[in-house]
């Protein structure tokens, strides 16, 4: 079934002197500021879910406060991501994963409404890499002497020195290392030594002995002054965190974990989750019901020539029904006992239920879902109270002038090589903006940010591909040819299944490809927000200037579905 385009038809205007055009412009609806946040795709435990959603909510509120004060979209993106970088719950800024040498090296990117970017990669000694990326973006538009071209991406020590030259505070490495990040480093270092010892019994790994790691190993590598961060956080949230969807990150099931806890000032449920509907409900009540809230629904994957598409769980708002293909299947009354792990999207409203593709209520899952559906190793990981989050954080904002901007930040893969650049630092892979065409009467533009397996996303230029698909309304068709697709749900599904998972460079890799994508398309009729992921869960929030509180959602993937997705439509008055 096909729907009509979401953009309203415009009567042709012919005017020799442009007077009619000026009258039409005066009648254009005023843009509504909005901000959209994601805190990473992966597995978010039910016990800690409210902590992730709280971080998304607070980041959205902070970004919106900037937008309401008249700040630009790039400033709002910086403020929101900076808040997430300061939260230990994310792998960005403070508390990031460590390199093999025990150093925090971060990546970040900011892209403005014109597609101009500023980025930093593998930069040490910076607490808020998103601010450094914004600094590089701002400096890139200022001319240099002798007609030199200002950089828009800097890495390593060069990026750090650039920050110093422009007055950015530098911090010692030990002040960027949280207790949880240090504990992960020690455990993973021991795992790595054991793995190398099996491969090379007679050799030392990187000059290190195969003895058991201790706190002294980290202190020697990353804290030569013998100082610690002084932050006394427990391990419940971050002890199992992975970054960027790496299914082979060094973790051995059964590794002793710390006691449940949370960052300072945050309460975390200490009881282990059970299969009961009461304990597994993932509702996070942040505000009163709003007509633009997400509504969970199911649809049956439509078959297309020469393509085999998995069943997909999608979630759309009431307003989205006007521009998404109508859902198929029987829609029964929502059930308040819907499972948090049944593929539905948990939202700010607790009375949303879940209906399976055949109209029957799905049964409760007995075990937490894997990081990546279908990977054997991912099903062996940890307990239900552990998080395994591909936690590149991202934000997209639209300011009062209608300008769109996007940004991403990440600490990278745990135990990575020094100097490794991740997708959060690469324009078109982790962050992308397709600017509006000056001759486009609808002033359409698209932004996309991703979280997932960085090396796999680089292979298919993930964020740029997704943004272009939405901008041009196309999907991959037979023989790799682009074909028109007006159903945005089918478009987002095809992007993950065909453009990402079906890419030869991803399909033929020994490690599985994981991705979560958040995208925003705006024109003169309003704003369309989309997300999709093939990981177990994806934490997001959205807030318009007309909203009192953000709408937060923890989208979860069912074992019966290969892709979960959702959408929200904000129409201008």
From TrEMBL:
This is Threonine aspartase. PANTHER family: L-ASPARAGINASE, THREONINE ASPARTASE 1. CDD domains: Taspase1_like (cd04514). The lineage of its organism: Eukaryota, Fungi, Dikarya, Ascomycota, Pezizomycotina. Residues 305-314 have a biased composition (Basic residues). InterPro entries: Ntn_hydrolases_N, Peptidase_T2, Taspase1. It comes from Podospora pseudocomata. Residues 1-15, 269-288 have a biased composition (Low complexity). It holds the Pfam family Asparaginase_2.
